Amino acid sequence: MTSLNATLAGWTSTLACEALPEDVLHDTKLRIADTIGLMHAGAATRFGRSVAGAMLDGAGAGPSTAVGTGRKAPPDLAAIVNGAAAHVLEFDDTHVETAIHVSSPVVAAVLAIAEARGASGRDIVAAVAAGNEVTCRLGIVAPGALHRNAYHPTAVFGAFGAVHAAGKLLGLDATRIAYATGIVGSQSAGLMAAWTDGTDAKSMHPGWSAHCGIMSARLAAGGVTGPDLVFEGPFGFFRSHVQNPTAPFDYARAAAALGQTWESRSIAFKPYPAGHFVHAFVDALLAILAKHPLRPEEIARIHCPIADFMVPLVAEPVEKKLAPATSWHCRVSLHWSLAEAMVLGKLDRHAYDLEHPRVAEIRALARKVSHEIDATQTNRRIWRGHVIVTTTDGRVFEHIEHHNRGSAENPLSEADLRAKFASNVSDSYAAAEASALFDRILRLESQPSAAGLLT
Length: 455
Description:
By secondary structure, the protein is α+β, with helices and mostly antiparallel strands. The protein has helices at residues 4-14, 22-43, 46-56, 75-87, 103-117, 121-139, 145-148, 153-169, 174-185, 194-197, 205-221, 237-241, 251-255, 279-291, 311-314, 318-322, 327-331, 334-344, 359-366, 414-424, 431-442; strands at 64-66, 71-73, 94-95, 267-268, 299-306, 369-373, 385-391, 396-401. It folds into two domains: 4-270 and 418-446, 2-methylcitrate dehydratase PrpD, CATH 1.10.4100; 276-401, CATH 3.30.1330.120. It has 21 helices and eight strands. The strands form three sheets. Strands 6-5-7-8 form a four-stranded mixed beta sheet, with helices on one face. It has a two-stranded antiparallel ribbon with strand order 1-2. It is globular and about 70 Å long.
């Protein structure tokens, strides 16, 4: 029987841009634009500058752009810098059901190689579409299982998507893409330990995934082999990363109807730079405030019934969610996110600043946020936000957002994504230049190369 590895590699190796359904083609270009914007925004952060300095100082020049730095680098190092920058603000897209940040590692790998090889726009789009689809399909083999076993799924599944995308751009055949995938599996990592203290390591994951994808594809191109049964074998990825001998792994679902059913249609763009599970709750609270313009001092309690699979990531341990140690810690706190959204009225790329003059108000309001597990919310494909506000004079207001904004059921418009892009690249481009770049990315399949997409 053909392995999942071989099945996916065969599909990736033959996928052409013209085979993409119109909506997948358009959304893939939007994902490339969104990720490039996030690379610029992340490059301007303390973390982004630290990563760029660590990776590029003394490394020598190369053909690939480290976005937002004005520097060129070897492709593998540019991919680390760009992938990390795209992820640090927690603003990059996420696959609903698996909570994998899909595009940041794939786009980082693709653009680094594309610049080095002069790849056409059509090849870039096809490689990103393939890498994103493979990432999503591997995630649905065991949705949620990696989180429960202390692995960050973006780090490991992102590397598999990146190696497919990189292998495709490097012109590898199905056999060598399968070898490269096996090599990636032998290097799988991505611990979630940074959730404990909010340190930077987790934000590196898409960069490392992009780097791992590029290096593994190059190793396979050079003749290094990798295991065919990297996924379903007795020593394969899922058995090693899911410490449950009876866990069900749906390999058939991952391989079914490739090119006909697109799991990547379930990737959701982010309207807020925060853990994706909090988004619908933020929108639910803002919907209440739009009808009832309450002040923070009028709030007695903000209560959130929440799905149990969300709780370990954004709601507990409560003491850490109430007193986040770092900006990143704030981004994965339901309590802090709701409080900041109410106090400041927004969550944009500049949010979660622990030096903000109103941080004491945010901290006080966060302590009025509570949660309980909603046993009716068991479908991982639906990220619902339910908020109940009680005021100090006893009034109660309630709102449910049934689907997170940015998902297929509640999409962001192209105008929304254009505005997000303009904000994220504003340190690098004037408004008119940003709009022209966004338009150019939307015509990417007609562009001869990636030249001019990155600075």
